[in-house]
Sequence to fold (470 residues):
Amino acid sequence: MPSKTLPSIKYTKKVEITENRVIMLPDVSFQGAGKGYCMFIERVARQESPMMQIAVIGAGLSGLATTIALMKRFHQPFEAWLIDAQDAPGSFGNGPVGRALTSEPARDLSVIPDRPDDFSDWLKGSLLADGPIASLRGPQDLHVPRALFRDYVMARFSEALSLRKDIRIRTFRGEVRDAIPQNDRVRLRFREGDRAEFDHVFIATGFGVARREADSWRAAHAAADRLSQCEDPPVLTLLGNGPRFASLLLDLRASGYAGPIHIRAATGSLPQPHGRGHDRASFGPPPASRSLRDAFHYIRRECRTAENREPGQWQSVVDAASLRLSAVWRNLPQKERNHYRRHLLHLHRHFSTRIARDTHRRLVAELETGRTQFVSSRLPAGPEENTVDCRETPSASVLARLLGMDLDLLSVNDSGGLLMDGNPLFGLSLVGTAASSLRPGPFVFAETVRQAYRAVLDMQRHTFALASRS
Fold:
């Protein structure tokens, strides 16, 4: 096991609470002069052996799911840093964003993969036990405000933390500039020059997303307030057509904005709504071919068969096709994977990302008014005052620059393990949106959770292998 060195820390403020020890660190220094903000939660008994140092880049849903997986499945002492450029853990449910409905139903939002109904049961026990919704139907199909989902995730985070006496959790606000593997460890460098080394780094953030979600909401409402002052307001343009755009557009209308809105999106169509239920079409075994063309011929043929067998169940067919493509992916050479990333990934993402049925119905009604319409997908040459970027697509090129590697040599396996020209880069894992910039998914939260647990188990196997060698 390589030796572990803790970053140098200056403690400037300390607050004691029950059981957990919480220390607020407004002035954090790693190996440079930069400053940040950190919260330190400790539940560790006195021990002599050094703790494994782990970084989780991203304090959103993927980062929290990864940290919960670490606390539940990594059975040795560790110190985990939750690093985010702007947000504290759980902030995805703050402010107006928290009013927006989750894009996926409750049945698909469990943070515990072996208990897929965990969020539904939490809703039932916490809010719906005696309510009319519980008497009419279960909460499995509900799309709830994101603030409520945030409460569930943070509750499960706290429960997992309370069961571990041998770990430390820190949060740090800072922008990671690069993540470079070095001698069985990974070195992170931050924007202000700070540096820190970790035994393992999970990249669980939307690298390359054109604008952070909270920024999109602030910009949209600021533009709407400004344009509302005009007697004949000019057009407000929204870039993108994913769940973020859908929630933002409906919130603008609900807030009273009546000016014209244009939607500029590559597909020129709304995201599809979720179907009812969660039955999944069955596909035959994938081909052993190493050709992307053969893989898509197989998927197209199986889709036609599934559509004939289950008419109207297009969502089940698409879900099955996505799972099959992930299986076929393992056999594809790097050249074919790059072809998929360049030419097919965007389309695959569009058909795999869905919104609530009620949200889709309201969007259709809004388009029928004529106040809102799709326009050419041509992107503006530069920033435009009345254009708000709502795109959510991660950038593989930004990820490659972060790692200092050739994009055409990068790939990700099923466990989120990063590969360089087919060889594993130990110490680095991609989870959620970051992984979906290089491979077929995950595009939905349930698959992100499963990938997080696989990534943790994969890290544990590698850790044991290192320990046995040393």
